[in-house]
Amino acid sequence: MRESGLRMALTLLIIGVICGGLIAAVNGVTAPVIEERTMVQFLEALEGFFPEVDSYDVSEIGNESFYTCTDAAGNFIGVVAQAKADGYGGAIFYDLAVSDSGDIVGIRISSHGETPGIGDVITKDEFQDRVIGLNVADSISAGVDVDTVSGATISSGGMLDSIRRVMDIIGENFLN
User: Fold this and answer.
1) Structure pTM?
2) Which one of 38, 43, 110, 176 counts the least CB within 10 Å of its CB?
3) Is residue 57 located within the same domain as residue 44?
4) Domain encompassing residue 71
């Protein structure tokens, strides 16, 4: 009896090690592909925000990346931030495009875990239209410059807090 229990435990251990190794191998193959696709999607969004972009430089501030965009003549045209907000369902990853005059010209939610039909309202035009056009000089606070979305106050409020923080970074580091 005792020998069969030991044999069963050893068999489960071997199966677990094999499965863990297979998962690690698959992750090693797919992670670079996923990362490359994510970057391609980001660059497509960057070019959508600033069609005249010719080149960009990347700056890391805190845990976020800021892409300073220039046109073919070398003129600064804006900044695109890859940022993170805290939502109800966890982290919300997004891109925020700000023109050289400090206006928000675009926003793209790249990843989130918000509740479908409620918190995912941050991905909809209804929310994004409330943000686009705001300037670095605006307070960008929930209920003042932008109404939160009913039923999704944690998601939309978290986004607005993060956007204000990112706009402060952009204003201090990239705009005159």
Assistant:
1) 0.79
2) 176
3) no
4) 53-173
**The residue type at 172:** E
Residues 85-99: pLDDT tens digits?
Answer: 998 888 999 999 999
Same domain, 136 and 62: yes
Residue 49: CB atoms within 10 Å? 24
Three-state SS sequence of the chain: CHHHHHHHHHHHHHHHHHHHHHHHHHHHHHHHHHHHHHHHHHHHHHHHHCCCCCEEEEEEECCEEEEEEECCCCCEEEEEEEEEEEECCEEEEEEEEEECCCEEEEEEEEECCCCCCCHHHHHCHHHHHHHCCCECCCCCCECCCECCCCCCHHHHHHHHHHHHHHHHHHHHHCCC
Give tens-digit pLDDT for 6-38.
899 899 999 999 999 989 888 888 888 878 888
